[in-house]
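Hey team,

Sharing the Inorganic pyrophosphatase run so nobody has to redo it. Sequence (175 residues) first:
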Amino acid sequence: MNPWHDVSPGDNLPITVNAIIEIPKNNRAKYELDKESGLLKMDRVIYSSMYYPHNYGFIPQTYCDDDDPLDILVISQIPIVSMCIVEAKIIGVMRMLDQGEADDKIIAVAEHDKSVSHIENIEELPEHTLNELKNFFEDYKKLEDKEVVVERFQNRKLAQEIFQQSIEDYKNKFS
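Structure output:
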């Protein structure tokens, strides 16, 4: 079974999606899905002394311009173990460029974590949370001499549109 291709993106689209966690929050290891085997592999230990501020993964049966599934950050009070499927409510998107190429990150909250599940839109997050995300993604590759630019955070409506497009792109690529 390959989690990218064989796990449903969810039952309540585009409100909530199934997120597959690759990297638990507060972790320095950069894990990613091996596209062929469906197993998780360690790509590297982050060069800088930074930790992922939130749970990071992907949405199954999506496809983006970087030849990967759509990335998602799932905010929760706990680190979520790697390869766990989490029902996540989309609240926004972080638009960014990774070495000059678009690399959007959907921002979501864990639907079954009462400490965050009440949040509906990215505007409801504390400004400091957004600043932490921006700082992490702009700085975590600096010691690799790679540039990442966070352009802006956008609302739930645009995030859901980006998600829907990634579903269509997946169907066009793999059907």
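DSSP finds three helices and nine strands in the chain.

Ping me if you want the raw files.
A.
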